[in-house]
Amino acid sequence: MSIETAVIVCPRADVPEAGLVTVHVAGMPVLTRALLTARWAGIERFTIVASRSQQVALKAILDGEARLEGRVRWHEPAEDLHPLPAYSLVLPLSVVLDARGLRQWLMRAEENGSMAAPDGAAIGPLVVPAVLLAPCIEAALLGEPGWMGFAETLREDRRLVRIPWEGMQLQPLRSVDEVPAVERAMLATARSVEDGPIVDRYVNRAVSWRLTRWLAQWCVTPNQVTAASLATGLIGAWLLRGEGMIGSLGGLLLYQLSVILDHADGELARVKFLQSPLGKWLDNISDHVVDLAMIGCLCWRVASKGTAGYFATLGLAAAVGVTSAFLVVFWWSISTARREVGKTLAARLLSRLLALLANRDAFALALWATILVDRPAWFLWALALGANLYWIAWLLTFGLPPRKRLATDQPGGG
Q: In terms of domains, do 210 and 163 share one?
């Protein structure tokens, strides 16, 4: 079976949950977020069931949302829904879902071919056959009690299959007071699998999710945050060009802020459903430009003391290593092919080490350590040797992905 239609039921006006429809979560009304979550999960068409007075307010919320243009039908509770698909996805507005988790759950529900609900959740999305859609809508109009009663009745009749839910746990939203907790859970899942275990985890993400939560309230795009990250990193590199502790600390702090903004652009893209291939390319290329600017400005700094040709060669070797490492890792990041790992223990350990180092943690730690002890040449040596060894080991371990397996629709990074 294939599920292409989602039904969203706005509870009756006398039900407390009806007031949550216009509540904003991460800068977006709950209704808009529910629709875009389902759209990102593969749903093509939507039916919103609401009273005539409720529809006026809800249409104003969705006005101007181009991503949903021509995909939404409106019905009053007493109206018959025709034509009815064989199965529909019915979404509760009192639960905030993760798009990736919903997509994976839907795929398993489609394979199962029967009425389904998430395992372990009191309330959540339902896959409903056409014959049961009308009573499901009647129950959903009563809010969470009606929803739970309907699911319990079907469970007792053994007509409901429970399918495991993966990814971000379903986040109930019963009052405005629960919005901060829901936003924190959303931003926790917006992190990248490529994060480093030290600086990214304990510094960058600890700041970026708070920044993203604030930025989500404004009309700021992920690409604008990427541009801010690039500008901040370049200014930081310029400050590191000169000697002096104040300038060095300023350059290091601006570099770290650049990385934090680099994380925030990806988080913002995911919570606002603004992922795009262009965003991924801009995000990764701007990161690399900042890294090269750091190398160039540090070469300038150490070459000013003499032997400029020597340090120019060292800087070139570092730039080649960093660029080569960036290219091979990024090439694999946009590929749908799996990296084949050798069967020996050494091969498995090496592959894990390479994956662990495929982030900016090592770059940041080496930069901070060498600048604070005023040994920028050590940083250049570390890159000239370490980065070149890294990309060579990567190619020997994984090779390059097949060209035909490159993905063209990868979401933005960060």
A: no
Q: 247: which 2 tokens?
A: 């300038």
In contact, 271 and 186? CB cutoff 8 Å: yes
DSSP class of residue 304 equals: T
Angle between helices 345-356 and 376-398 (to 10 degrees): 130
Q: How many CA atoms lie within 13 A of 163 on its CB side?
A: 24
Tell me the sheet residues that pair with 29.
24
Please report where in the chains the tokens 């309330």 appear, as a residue: 123
Asked whether residue 411 is assigned to any structural domain, the reply reads no
135 and 257 inside one domain: no
166 and 217 housed in the same domain:
no
Whole-Å CA distances, 140 to 82, 122, 217, 257, 324: 19, 14, 30, 46, 55
The pLDDT-based confidence of 412 (bands split at 50, 70, 90) is: very low
Q: What are phi and psi of 129, to 5 degrees?
A: -70, 160
Kindly list the distances between the CA atom of residue 3 and the CA atoms of 9, 102, 161, 255, 404, in Å, as whole numbers in the listed order. Answer: 17, 12, 16, 46, 29
Q: Hey, what long-range contacts does 279-285 have (CB within 8 A, 24 or more apart)?
A: 279/222, 279/223, 279/226, 279/411, 279/412, 279/413, 280/334, 280/410, 280/411, 280/412, 280/413, 282/223, 282/226, 283/222, 283/226, 283/412, 283/413, 283/414, 284/326, 284/330, 284/333, 284/413
Could you read off the pLDDT of 175-211 as tens digits, one per residue?
A: 899 999 999 988 887 777 778 889 998 999 999 999 9
Cis amide linkage into residue 83, ω under 30° from 0: yes
Burial status of residue 264 (CB atoms within 10 A of its CB: 0-12, 13-18, 19 or more): buried
- Asked if residue 413 is part of any domain, the answer here is no
Tokens of 167: 């990814």
Q: Which amino acid is at 63?
A: D
**Using the 8-state DSSP alphabet, how is residue 19 labeled?**
G
Q: From CA 121, how far away is CA 19, in angstroms rounded?
A: 23
User: Is the Cα torsion angle 400, 402, 403, 407 positive or negative in sign?
Assistant: negative
Would you say residue 45 has pLDDT above 50?
A: yes
* CATH code, 146: 3.90.550.10
